[in-house]
Amino acid sequence: MAVTKIRKTSSLAFLVTIIVTLVVLGLFLFGGQVAPEQKLVPDMSQPVFTDMLLYWAYALLAITIVALILFAIFGFIHSLKVNPKGAIRGLLVLLAMVVVLGVSYFIGSGELLNIPGYDGGDNNPGTLKVVDMWLFTMYFMLAISIGAVLISPILSRKK
């Protein structure tokens, strides 16, 4: 009974998210362009619903981060009760991730970008280093994922 309720709830949340995302993408792609006198850069395409798409992406990111943190905390508390050694290993993985984020932050570039039509305050060395940090971390995690997909069948055959 509980599994069915969980499955129905998660399926409904997933479908609502997909439908809203498709609507927002449709508005972004087919909603038209900003009037020529309001464009930031006259010769560039500027869809009307760009802000809506960005706010939806921010909302999805915030929901994902909150869910990730909550599940991690509750999972750690549960595993600390059931398997303390496994919980400590989980903390070591978290520590490794913090190290990867730190290293990727320090190798990131803070060089200012030349962005036509942008006068905002986010083109500064700190923000650019954080963006590079996330990009380098994603590249690193992608490489690890591809390596795991390629290596795990080989290791399972040896066992």
Domain unit count:
2
The proportion of residues in beta strands is under 5%
Counting H and I runs of at least 4 residues, what is the number of helices?
A: 4
SS content category: mainly alpha
Number of strands: 0
SSE series:
HHHH
Radius of gyration: 22 Å
Overall pLDDT, averaged?
90
Distance between the termini: 38 Å
Question: Which outline best applies?
Answer: extended
Q: Please estimate the helix content.
A: over 70%
The major beta sheet can be summarized as: none
Uncertain stretches of 5 or more adjacent residues: none
List key phrases describing it.
159 residues, mainly alpha, 2 domains, 4 helices
Summarize the structure.
With 159 residues, the chain is mainly alpha-helical. It has four helices and no strands.
Commentary on this structure:
The chain has 159 residues and is mainly α. The protein folds into 2 domains: 1-82; 84-159. 75% of the residues lie in helices and 0% in strands. The protein has 4 helices and no strands. The chain has helices spanning 2-30, 50-82, 84-107, 125-158. Helix 1 runs antiparallel to helix 2 (50-82) and helix 3 crosses helix 4. The protein is extended and about 65 Å long. The two termini are 38 Å apart.
